[in-house]
Structure formats: structure tokens, C-alpha cells
Amino acid sequence: MDEVNVVVAHSERATLRVGEVFLKVDTDQARIDVEVEAMALVPVPTPEILWRKPSVLAIAAVPGTALGRLGEPSAASPAAWAAAGAAVRRLHDAPLPPWPGRRRRGPGEWAAELDRECDLLVKNGILPAGLVTRNRQVAETALRPWTPVFAHGDLQIEHVFVDGDEVTGIIDWSEAGRGSALFDLATLTLGHEENLDDLLAGYGTDVDVDAIRAWWSLRSLLGVRWLVEHGFDPFAPGCEVDVLRSRM
User: Fold this and answer.
1) Number of Cα atoms under 13 Å in the Cβ half of residue 97
2) pTM listed for this prediction
3) Order of strands, edge to edge, in the sheet holding 21-26?
4) Tell me, which fold does domain 63-245 have in CATH?
5) Do 83 and 162 contact (CB within 8 A), yes or no?
6) pLDDT level of residue 112 (50, 70, 90 thresholds)
């Protein structure tokens, strides 16, 4: 009998694996609806949808292994990273989805959220003021107007699967919508700066690398408190706090 493995779980969502089937349970039905619609539209490999019922989505496992994991060096080849970059470029070049996306915020909205979060990080003693201030300065470069693309919205390294040098699937589309291309690229390379050049070899070099670095700071500043409060450890080696320290 296959065991039930908890992939991730917190108060909003949980993902369980039973054999070759993943069950995604979400308190927000709209996220499941977006995930299903996005996978039907995007020009990249996605998991097969087996069935869906209110609050639950069942999908098949994709072949291959994750491109890497946050906090660990990626074992994927430079060619695999380039293939991932090419897949992300196809996504970003696709026609915009008909819905705006949960992360459809302009620079002003990102800046306001970032300022609030930075204040809380210092006020609650989660991070030292100097570290927060320096990364808030770095993050400023990300807060420029951008042209929206079809964005994944949560393109973590564990959401891209490869087999050898081929992308076999991109998973977890619940945050998909119109968003920033650089946010996707920064999310995928967070904690893996050494793989950025290989990714861009496939994506294309017409990219503002300084803005990607700025998104690393911005995304990490916005994520640390949430991760702590939901039982994750952003202080683990190679994770969000180390990303922030690397900007000092």
C-alpha cells in the first residue's frame, strides 16, 4: 500500500502525495480554479489533471526530478538550467491570461507592502535593522514599471522538473496571472545565484540582472516573517536570510 506523504501543509493549503498522485487541498477555491485554467493555457509541460472536486485537485506526478532545492546546491546541469530558461521564456511570451492574477501589483503597491514588512521585521526583532535597511535599498531597483507577462507567480526551484537536460513539467500554478517576468526569474534563482547565467542562456540575455538581484532582496524581505509564523525556517543555510546577508 502506498503511504501518504505530506509535501507541504499550513493553514491555507496542503499538498499530499499518494504514490504517483498529488492531492492539493486549498481553502481558496479560486486558487484551484486558476491552477486548472493556467495549465490549460500555458505552452510548457504541466502535470496531468486527474480530477477535481470543491477544495481538492488531484494531479499526476511529472517525470524527472526538481531542478533543485532552496538551501542546497543544484545538481542539474547547465543545459538543464538553460532548458528551464527557455521554457520560462515561452511562458512569458504567451498571450496574457484573461484574469489579472493574485500578484498583479504595481511598483507603488509592492513598495507599500515592503515598507510595512520591513517595519515589522525590525519591530518584532526578527532581523537586525542594518540588514533590513540595506536590503530595502537594494530592493528599490525592482520597483520600476514593467510590462506584464503571463507569469507563474510562484516559480520556486522545486516547481520545475527536469529529466536530464529536458524540462518535463512545471507545477503549482495557483498564483499564475499577469505579472513581472523578473519576479519569476528571481524566484526560480533565489539562493542559486551561481545558476543565473545558465538560466539566462536559455531565457535570453535581454534581462536586467540588477533588477533580478533586487527581487531576491524584495522577495526574501516579504517572505521571512510569513515563513517563521508558518513553521518554516528562513534562517537555514542557503535560504532567505542568507540571501539577504549576501547583499551586505
Assistant:
1) 28
2) 0.93
3) 4-9, 13-18, 21-26, 56-60, 49-53
4) Aminoglycoside 3'-phosphotransferase; Chain: A, domain 2 (3.90.1200)
5) yes
6) very high
CA–CA distance from 207 to each of 75, 98, 152 (Å)?
25, 26, 17
Residue 12 corresponds to which cell in the numbers above? 491555507
* E-only strand ranges, the chain: 4-9, 13-18, 21-26, 49-53, 56-60, 65-66, 149-151, 160-163, 166-170, 177-179
Burial of 182 from C-beta contacts in 10 A (0-12 / 13-18 / 19+): buried
Could you give the 3-state DSSP secondary structure of residue 85? helix
> And the C-alpha cell for 102?
493574485
Distances (CA, A) of 65 to 58, 76, 80: 19, 9, 11
The CA distances from residue 72 to 42, 140, 157, 162, 237, in Å, are 29, 28, 11, 17, 8
Question: What's the CA gap between 87 and 82, in Å, rounded?
Answer: 9
In this structure, what C-alpha cell is assigned to residue 150? 503571463
Cα dihedral sign, 129-130-135-137: positive
Residue 103 confidence class, pLDDT cut points 50, 70, 90: low
In the numeric block, the cell 507545477 is attached to 171
Opening angle at CA 7, ends 6 and 10, nearest 5? 80
pLDDT, tens only, 223-244: 999 999 988 999 999 999 999 9
Q: Report whether pLDDT(220) > 80.
A: yes
113 half-sphere exposure, CB direction, 13 A CA radius: 15
